[in-house]
Design goal:
By secondary structure, the chain is mainly alpha-helical. The chain is built from 5 helices and 2 strands; from the N terminus they run E-E-H-H-H-H-H.
């Protein structure tokens, strides 16, 4: 159980912070940067939810479904941050630490398939934007991509202490957020496609 009864502790005033294991590292340590970016992504998902217009009896039921998915993803992102903040130990037994599991990644894959199936195939890349809800999801997607790149660096530089499933989870999440952004753009009808070289002289 998490218990927070003090908001400031002054323990970080010297430029260090504590990992979940208790080890203190610089605040700009790559691992701290990584789980901090996951936290940023979570905040962006929360902001997108506020633009969904999914409250009230007349709200679009599909948007309500999407918001429910996003709220569940916020819990996963906290799991992911906790995972990354706790370096894997060689003596660790399965289930003894909170880790992202393959089942969480697989759930995202099922959602991608479910929501992408009715959408029209794309003939170009989609410009980030459209409705405020879609724009928020695109912003969250790009932050998740940044978190994914940072996890890839951790996996390359410190593979034994970084759960590989966090990388797979974030990869699928960015794909899901792209699909849900299309749903938020009137099921893809409001997507604006990239026209390569559109502003170059003819």
């Amino acid at each position: 159980m998490v218990k927070l009864n003090r908001i400031y502790t002054k323990t970080g005033d010297g430029g260090t912070t504590g990992l979940a294991s208790g080890v203190r590292v610089p605040k700009d340590d790559p691992r701290v940067e990584t789980y901090g970016t996951v936290d940023e992504a979570n905040a962006a998902v929360g902001l997108a939810i506020t633009t969904a217009g999914a409250d009230g009896p007349d709200a679009d039921p599909v948007r309500k479904e999407v918001v429910a998915i996003l709220r569940s993803i916020q819990h996963d992102l906290f799991d992911c941050g906790a995972d990354l903040a706790t370096p894997v130990e060689s003596s660790e037994t399965p289930g003894s630490r909170l880790r992202i599991l393959p089942s969480q990644t697989e759930r995202l894959e099922h959602l991608i398939d479910e929501y992408n199936d009715p959408l029209s195939p794309l003939t170009s890349f989609v410009l980030p934007g459209g409705t405020p809800f879609a724009a928020g999801l695109h912003l969250a997607r790009t932050i998740v991509r940044r978190a994914e790149r940072l996890v890839a660096t951790l996996r390359r530089t410190d593979p034994d202490t970084t759960n590989a499933e966090t990388l797979r989870y974030l990869n699928r999440l960015s794909d899901l957020l792209f699909v849900l952004a299309r749903i938020a753009n009137d099921r893809g009808a409001g997507d604006v496609l990239w026209i390569p070289g559109s502003n170059r002289p003819r």
